[in-house]
Amino acid sequence: MKRENREQWKAAQNLSDVRELTARWLTGELEEHPGYPGGPPDQETAPIADRLAEINRQGLLTTQSQPGHEGDDYAQSAWVQGLGAEEHVRELQRRVQDANMQARIAPPATEHRFHRTRFDDGTKGWSAGTVGDMAGPTISNGVLNEVMGQWQFEAQDPASCQETYLFDVMAQRDEDEA
To answer: Which of 6, 13, 11, 9 is nearest to 22 (CA)?
Structure first.
């Protein structure tokens, strides 16, 4: 990681700072993220980057995601994984489920599995991870402990390959929140 990026991440004082830095990385204002080696987000993230940034700013630290896709070579459901306060992830779970999509939450520091990708040959791929996946030497131990103390959230739009619908639902603010 470049020194100037590392210094910005080291300056994070709390989870809110990490979410803001993640939002800035998603929108191209920062070049690197300690939980994502290799520079900017994948090109496939472009259609959902602004929504993911908003979701981070609203209280969910997104750790992995993908837009929905249907093409000649593969299809995948929109999917997201993140960390947040229990009350916030419960609200996101309600929103996602009210929109007829799947969502689940889990207490801090447990393993989670949810993501599925459907290929033309009918096979499905799964990803798994733990809360510590985004850990790196650029975040202070105190901030990392705060991150690891958050509830896990995972959601998927399994019925369609709509690129952004899941993220639209999640980024939607209630009128009294706006």
So the answer is: 9
What confidence category does residue 96 fall into, taking pLDDT thresholds of 50, 70 and 90? very high
49-53, 93-97, 119-123, 148-152: segment of lowest average pLDDT: 119-123
- Report phi then psi at 103, rounded to 5: -150, 145
pTM: 0.83
> E strands along the chain, which residues?
61-66, 69-70, 74-76, 79-84, 102-106, 112-119, 124-129, 151-156
- Segments making up each domain of the chain, as ranges: 3-171
Structure tokens at 116: 């599925």
The order of strands in the sheet holding 74-76 is 69-70, 74-76, 112-119, 124-129
